[in-house]
Amino acid sequence: MASGPPHVLIIGAGTGGLCLAHGLRRAGISVAVYERYRTRGEGLLGYRVGIGPTGSKALRECLPPELFDVYLATCARSPRYFNVITQRLRRTASFTLRPDTDPVETERSVARMTLRQVLLTGMEDVVHFDKTFTRYEQRDDGTVTAHFADGSTATGDLLVAADGTHSAVRRQYLPHAVVRDAGTINIATRVPLTPHTRQLLPERVEKGISLIFGAGGIMGVLHVMEFKWDRDGEIKPDVADADADLLRHWPGRRHDNTRDNINFIIWSTARRFPADVMQRRGEDLVQVARDLTRHWHPNLRELLARSDPGSALPIRVATSEPVPPWKASTVTLLGDAIHTMTPGRGVGANTALRDAALLCRQLRRATAGDKTLLQAVADYEAAMVPYGFARVADSLHRSGTSGDDRMYKPVVGRLALLGARGYFGVTSRVPRLARKFVNDFYTYRGEED
After folding, report:
1. Which of 327, 319, 311 is CA-nearest to residue 396?
2. What would the pLDDT profile of 47-64 be if each residue is shown by its tens digit?
3. What count of other Cβ atoms lies within 10 Å of the Cβ of residue 66?
C-alpha cells in the first residue's frame, strides 16, 4: 500500500460519489470517478430529491464554498407546507415548514439532474464517462485494480462503490448482501408548470409537498418545482442579484434542461399494476396511472393527462437486507450500493451524502498519518453500517412503503386509511402536536447519531 496520500477510485458519479470526490480533492487526496453514462447529461434524472439538514451539511463540508453557494442558488423554491390530502383534493392536514433562511437547517427541493450538474462542476479532470465497471482485483502490494467493459483498467489504493442499488462492486465484494423487492411500484411523471396547471392546485398544495392518501391503497405525492430560470433557461427577473450572478457564471447551466414542473408520483402495491408495467413507457405508462386514479379529483387526473409522456418512469421499489459486519479492506461502499432504502422517509440521498462526508473525514485522518488507510475504512464502516441500516428499517416501516402493508388489504386497508388520516388530522390541529411533528421532521432529517 502506498505510504503517501492514497489514490481513491470511485465507481459511480451519483450524488454520494461526487460529493466524496469533491471532499477528497479539497483535502489534497488524489481521486478518479468512473461513470457508466456516456455524457454528463445522460439519464432520466429530473425528479425531485429532498435535501434535509444532514445532506446540506455534508455538501457544505465537502464542496468548495463557491460551489455550495451555487447549490443553494439552483435549489427549487423551498416547500412552505407539508400537506396530507385525499384523492378528492380535500385537505386532511397541513403543517407549516421552516423558512429557508438558514443554508442547512431546512428542507430543500433539488432536481436530480440539476444537482448532478452542480456536483460535476469543476470535475472534468476527475470524472471519466462511458466506463462500465465489470470487476476488481485486490493485489498483493495493497492496491486495487478496477476493470471496465471497454478493456481499460484503473489502479488505486482504495475502491469505493458508489454505483447504486444494482452495484456491480457489491455483487463481487459482498455476494451475500441481498437487495429485495419491497413489493411496491411507483409511476413518476413530470407535469410542465404553466399558469393553467398551477391553478389546478389549491394554494397550500401548490406551495408545498403533498402526500395523497387515496382509497383502495392508491397513494400519491405532489411536489411543485419552481426554479430561478424560465423555460428558455434565462434567469428570471425577480431573482436576487447575488443568485443571478452565480447562475450566469455557472457553467453547468448549459448542461441542465430542468425547467419548472410538478413532480407527480402514483404508487401502490405491485399487485395493482399490470404484469408488464416495468417495460411500459410514454403515454402507455401514463395511462396505467390514469386507470389507477379513475376516481380521483378531475384536477389531479388532468395533471396526469398533461404530464410529459417522455418523463414517465416506472420504479420498482427495493430495500436492502441488513448485512453482518465484514473485515475492512481496500474496497468499501456508500449510499445505495450498501443500504438501498425505500422513499418512505425521504432520506436516501441524505444518507449517501452523510456517508460521503464521513468517509472523507476518515481518509483525511489517514492521509495526515493519524491512522492507517485500512483503519480509516474500518472506522467509517463501523459507523456507517448501523446508521445506514437503521434508516433502511425506518423507511420500510413507513406507512404504504411495503407491498405487504395493511393499507393494501381489502378490508383492513380501509381502517388503516382512516387511521392514517385521523392521525394526521388530529396532529395538525393540536398546536403542541403540530410543533412536535415539524420539529421531529427536521430532527430526523438532520440526525447525526
Report:
1. 319
2. 889 999 999 999 999 999
3. 12
Predicted TM-score (pTM) of this structure: 0.94
Taking alpha carbons only, the member of 80, 44, 75 closest to residue 229 is 75
Could you tell me the three cell numbers for 192?
A: 410542465
Q: Where are the beta strands (DSSP E) in 46-90?
A: 48-51, 81-86
Q: Please, what's the largest Cα pairwise distance for the chain?
A: 66
Is the separation of the CB atoms in 50 and 440 below 8 Å? no
Helix 112-120 / helix 15-26 crossing angle, nearest 10 deg: 20
Name the grid cell of 101: 433562511
Sheet holding 153-156, edge to edge: 133-138, 144-148, 153-156
From 343, 17, 316, select the one nearest 185 (Cα to Cα): 316
Q: How far is CA 9 from the centre of its chain?
A: 22
Question: Which run of H or E residues covers position 119?
Answer: helix 112-120
DSSP string, 233-282: SPBPTTS-HHHHHHHHT-GGGGG----SEEEEEEEEEGGGS-TTGGG--H
Helix segments in 278-339, DSSP class H? 282-292, 298-305, 336-339
In the chain, the amino acid numbered 222 is L
Return the C-alpha cell found at 120. 460535476
CA–CA separation, 358 vs 352, rounded Å?
Answer: 10
pLDDT per residue over 225-239, tens digit each? 999 999 999 999 999
* 3-state class (DSSP) for residue 100: coil
Q: How many residues does the chain have?
A: 449
Helix (H) or strand (E) holding 435: helix 431-445
Q: Do the beta carbons of residue 296 and residue 222 sit within 8 Å?
A: no
The torsion defined by the Cα of 356, 362, 363 and 367, in degrees rounded to 10, comes to 160
For residue 359, which of 329, 331, 330, 379 has the smallest C-alpha distance?
379
Q: Can you say whether the dihedral through the CA atoms of 178, 269, 415, 189 is positive or negative?
A: positive
